[in-house]
Amino acid sequence: MYSSLRAExxxxxxxxxxxxxxxxPQKAALDFVASRYGLxxxxxxxxxxxxxxxxxxxxxxxxxxxxVGGGYLVVDGYNVVLxxxxxxxxxxxxLCDDGFVRDLRSSYVKDFDSPNVTxxxxxxxxxxxxxxxxxxxxxLDKNVSWxxxxxxxxxxxxxxxxxxxxxxxxxxxxxxRVVCSxxxxxxxxxxxxxxxxxxxxxxxxxxxxxVDIGSLLEGGPRLPD
Length: 225
Fold this sequence. Notes:
With 225 residues, the protein is α/β, with parallel strands linked by helices. It folds into two domains: 7-51; 65-211, Rossmann fold (3-Layer(aba) Sandwich), CATH 3.40.50. It contains ten helices and seven strands. It has helices at residues 7-21, 26-37, 41-50, 54-63, 77-89, 115-131, 147-158, 168-173, 184-189, 196-204, and strands spanning 72-76, 93-95, 101-102, 135-141, 161-165, 178-180, 210-212. It has a four-stranded parallel beta sheet. A three-stranded mixed beta sheet has the order 3-2-7. The two termini are 25 Å apart.
């Protein structure tokens, strides 16, 4: 479903993918398409986060595992928790061309005692128990304000292992575990990936609408007009 997107945004998505597949630099392609269709900042962010070269999107899809029972997971903590928070808050979610769900949130939530963050953490912890991995490690970015307090809260309240990292993306990628994140750079470098946030939303918040961006690209190349 993508009826909530302006017609201009739908055309921009197709043209942006076309330019990327033709080898144009990401920024140049995005600037051109944004100018052509008069995209707002959030619509530019949508293209940047959800549309990729076909080969890159397929690479991520090929590494995505269907289940994690008995496996060792590393969870990109802020990424997963805040995607679920966005669903709880009623923000728009998008199923991107690589099969991962993303929001357009541009900032971290500092207050981990807020009701929405608490609900998100409870849902993530509950789902992790039902998935039954051998172990799940939640990695938080040490540079985020109050991250040590957040790690302590997750550890003590939800009985999950946590780790603080100066560069959380490097810690997540280098763990050798199945990676739970929607960060595209992390997904491209990881060996195996799992969309934990999407699993939580679809299983625990089934009423949340997820706009399917990938279906817009099924028609193949475009641009000339």
